[in-house]
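Progress note, sequence design subtask.
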């Protein structure tokens, strides 16, 4: 028995026809398959790989039944099942992919996705009359996501359980007439049956646009339950074996062949660090800009516009004090601060971006990151915590991550607080003299200082490769903290006003 990858335009005619299997033969096959699945699952648990199996298909094909069977066959301690309809209310407050990042399996585990990333696009294609161009665009997002997590070790198994229109009608009729299973034939199933051609067209478009050699679609004939169950179980088993083999045969030296565009411009050298404000001017400007920011954030709240503030910079660059001047202008109910350090053991069990998707703000709220995902191309690059191929591909992954935010309408403000080496040394010495500030100086700060030139090069690369109009970098002249704080407040106000259409100031 095999299940073929989609290789022709008429995708549903490419599936292997189901065959009847006798009860005795089926029981024997299932017994062996269950043992194989558990053995593979235990082996997977010892690896850094994971598996996502997406179960999609026409109504009446038995998607829910198959998912229940897989939960019976597998060890529940290494398995999570996700349906996304019950996340809808919470998920719409955040970028579309947020719900899927929440549902990724940690290393060594399996996740079953009921419909996965495909149910919503199919429904929109049919009910909202979205066209092929729209399907093509959303498919690009799906392909990028699948490819990104695959590179991090998450194997994708995508299964479409198919029935012809006649077979679907017979299945729904049988369910409806069976007193014990009558509840399975819901009213929406019959409505969708009347739209069979439209749903099939939508599914075919998505399958064609999102199939790939690394993440193929498997079309399963669901007309015979025994055949269907065995086929899906074997596909999952094969995926786990693939993940285990990848773990054993990984060759990092081959993955390192990634080139990134050369950044010629020295962004940091162009910053005028002599800019400053005296106390009198600063105090008046602080009142003005904090008041303005306060009004803008409430306007953004009223209009469900969320904000992400990213603070990066040199050690002793003034991030903490700048953040305090920003939060002083915000109602405490609207924001949260995320202080980013080395990933915890739990966080290390996921793609590095996972821990930054989790705290994204709900509609109208603000999340402030004190250091961020840019650690991937800064400290993780310099200290070799990330392999070369990992930090090199991170620029594209970060740009896509931030595009997901801005496409959702989130305002993204990114700041690099720049100081020179002399100012850093001055602040280090000052901290050592003040008892309640000594904790801010660590051995790591001194080590980072010794690698100033390496970090400077990495920062210029970071800015050059991730500075986008929708998510721009502001390089803050930080030698004078008063000037830096006002520059940051002004920049946030300007971006919020742009998002609000220039209406926020008078709110």
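Output:
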């Amino acid at each position: 028995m095999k299940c073929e990858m989609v290789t022709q335009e008429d995708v549903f005619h490419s599936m292997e026809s189901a065959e009847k299997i006798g009860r005795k033969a089926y029981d024997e096959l299932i017994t062996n398959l269950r043992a194989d699945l558990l053995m593979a699952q235990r082996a997977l648990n010892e690896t850094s790989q994971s598996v996502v199996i997406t179960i999609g298909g026409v109504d009446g094909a038995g998607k829910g039944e198959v998912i229940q069977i897989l939960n019976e066959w597998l060890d529940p301690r290494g398995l999570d099942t996700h349906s996304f309809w019950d996340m809808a209310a919470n998920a719409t407050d955040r970028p579309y992919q947020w719900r899927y990042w929440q549902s990724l399996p940690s290393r060594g585990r399996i996740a079953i996705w009921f419909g996965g990333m495909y149910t919503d696009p199919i429904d929109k294609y049919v009910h909202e009359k979205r066209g092929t161009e729209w399907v093509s665009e959303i498919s690009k997002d799906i392909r990028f996501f699948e490819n990104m997590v695959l590179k991090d070790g998450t194997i994708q198994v995508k299964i479409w359980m198919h029935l012809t229109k006649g077979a679907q009608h017979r299945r729904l009729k049988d369910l409806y007439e069976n007193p014990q299973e009558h509840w399975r034939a819901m009213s929406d199933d019959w409505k969708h049956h009347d739209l069979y051609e439209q749903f099939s067209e939508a599914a075919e478009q998505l399958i064609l646009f999102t199939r790939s050699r690394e993440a193929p679609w498997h079309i399963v004939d669901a007309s015979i339950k025994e055949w269907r169950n065995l086929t899906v179980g074997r596909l999952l088993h094969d995926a786990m074996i693939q993940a285990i083999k990848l773990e054993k045969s990984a060759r990092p030296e081959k993955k390192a062949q990634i080139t990134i565009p050369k950044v010629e411009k020295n962004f940091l050298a162009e910053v005028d660090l002599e800019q400053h404000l005296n106390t009198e001017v600063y105090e008046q400007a602080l009142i003005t800009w904090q008041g303005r920011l306060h009004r803008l954030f409430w306007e953004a709240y009223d209009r469900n516009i969320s904000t992400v503030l990213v603070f990066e910079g040199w050690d002793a660059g003034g991030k903490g004090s700048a953040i305090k001047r920003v939060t002083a202008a915000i109602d405490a109910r609207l924001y949260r601060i995320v202080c980013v350090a080395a990933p915890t053991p739990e966080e290390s069990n996921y793609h590095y971006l996972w821990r930054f998707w989790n705290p994204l703000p709900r509609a109208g709220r603000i999340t402030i990151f004190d250091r961020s995902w840019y650690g991937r191309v800064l400290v993780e690059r310099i200290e070799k915590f990330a392999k070369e191929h990992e930090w090199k591909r991170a620029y594209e992954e970060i740009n896509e991550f931030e595009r997901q935010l801005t496409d959702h309408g989130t305002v993204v403000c990114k700041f690099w607080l720049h100081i020179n080496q002399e100012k850093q040394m001055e602040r280090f010495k000052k901290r050592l003299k003040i008892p309640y500030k000594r904790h801010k100086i660590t051995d790591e700060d001194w080590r980072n200082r010794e690698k100033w030139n390496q970090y400077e090069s990495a920062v210029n690369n970071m800015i050059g490769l991730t500075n986008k109009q929708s998510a721009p970098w502001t390089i803050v002249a930080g030698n004078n903290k008063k000037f830096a704080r006002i520059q940051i407040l002004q920049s946030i106000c300007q971006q919020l006003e742009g998002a609000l259409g220039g209406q926020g100031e008078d709110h």
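Residues 225-249 form the longest helix (25 residues). Work on this subtask will continue into the next period as scheduled.
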